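[DERIVE STRUCTURE TOKENS]
===
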Amino acid sequence: MLDDAELALVWQASEALGYPFGTFVQLLVLTGQRREEGAAMRWSELDLTNWTLPRERTKNAEPHALPVVSGMKALLADLPRFEGSDFVFTTNGRTPVSGFSKAKINLDAAIAELNGGKPIPPWRLHDIRRTFATNMAKLGVSLPVVEKLLNHVSGSFGGVAGIYQRHVFADEKRDALERWSRRVLELAS
């Protein structure tokens, strides 16, 4: 998990890297989504209120609606669009971003540069997801809402509870993401 100072460095270094990889990492920070699901984000999955991943694109084969809040809107507003491409993060318009190992090396170098030449302890992109979940708890977001944000079907929604409990927590997810967005931007400044 990344602490606040490390998360701020990741955000700032991502901003310095720019599109597509830097902006992609910032999206992961703001949403806590899985790397592959974020990398293959499509413009057709976005509307003014939600990013809706179809079941074919999620790890658990469940559709997933994630509220688009102010921080995410600002991030997406200035992104380039490739003619004839539906991918939000792409280098060629034909495929989603890839080459994460090289991108991570560049990100780590940018982090070290911002941090007086000192890298942060070894970390992986998936640690952003852990950081997101942990910080949701710090913000007082209930575990069921965190699980809905992460698109988990176990835990609070496993077994009998998952069969009977059908609330989608849309308002709660929106509120949690809005608070997290403000917190990330506060840390980064």
